[in-house]
């Protein structure tokens, strides 16, 4: 048996007036997801344990089969792992966003989706001028900062995508060691403000990356490898560092796909093709697509529907057409809701569909937030999905 989990990040949504009070999943043309619902079973998964933030880190850790309450130490260390950074015991990894701040208001948590090339140059400058830690280049606006002194247990930080349009003052890091971290963030403004790259960006009508925002900090997590736990060899197909990072702590191989950007123009067809190829060598493939989440954060309904349709036709459709369904167990789900009306993640249980030749189909015929409630799988904890898939 082969196992596939296909995650459309932030795909789930609320009913939208302009869509006749339907959700993007209900409106999207997604024959393959609906076919899986028909032939498989549906249900709801609690990917965000009570009291935890609805981040992609927590949610995806759940879907991988690891209880976040037990294994989660922060997003930073997971992303650092994907860059090959081995954290020492005392080191703390932060997610380091390039952001756009004007008049102390968070204008863009992604600095207008700054390119990795531009990020690379700005990270070099930061490393030359700030010596209290080390910066590493990630993808686009998503970079990493390693702070050597681990005394940050009570440090409180805020994800920048949660405060778009708000004054940053009250969201700067607070608590233990926060003064030093705030100093680094303030210093970045001096360094970045007049940098030629930002001057050029503004000339081109792009927002400047005029500040770094540090958040998601944590120390190295201790995880049992996936293969040891579930007795199968697995791989990930993902463009974003977070998923690669979780995968690398779990001992999963990340398969690089040309053209996978982690943004709405991600190369869906290639992802599907590489997933099918990966199934020759691995029993388990975890495919993650960031695009619907980005559309959700942007409040863009059209893009969200398009992303869902692309996942359905170019990834799921390709898999269904090319893999023997008698030997495939596959689940499709979002990690969390990213409603376009809220523009950020929310915590409700996510709809999922699970197909396996072993499972007797239930009476649900389409895949969406409301249909899934009537499925035979009921409501369960996110980290039980893998166990369910394996029977
Ligand atoms: Zn997510």
From TrEMBL:
One Pfam family in the UniProt entry: Metalloenzyme
GO biological-process terms attached to the record: glycolytic process
Domain Metalloenzyme: 1-378
Keyword Isomerase: yes
Pathway it works in: Carbohydrate degradation; glycolysis; pyruvate from D-glyceraldehyde 3-phosphate: step 3/5
Domain of life from the UniProt record: Archaea
This protein's UniProt keywords: Glycolysis, Isomerase
Catalytic activity: (2R)-2-phosphoglycerate = (2R)-3-phosphoglycerate
SUPFAM superfamilies on file: Alkaline phosphatase-like (SSF53649)
GO molecular function ontology, one term from the record: phosphoglycerate mutase activity
Enzyme Commission number, as recorded: 5.4.2.12
Assigned protein family: Belongs to the BPG-independent phosphoglycerate mutase family. A-PGAM subfamily.
PANTHER family: 2,3-BISPHOSPHOGLYCERATE-INDEPENDENT PHOSPHOGLYCERATE MUTASE, COFACTOR-INDEPENDENT PHOSPHOGLYCERATE MUTASE
Physiological role: Catalyzes the interconversion of 2-phosphoglycerate and 3-phosphoglycerate.
Name under which the protein is recorded: 2,3-bisphosphoglycerate-independent phosphoglycerate mutase
Source organism per UniProt: Methanothermus fervidus (strain ATCC 43054 / DSM 2088 / JCM 10308 / V24 S)
Gene name in the database record: apgM
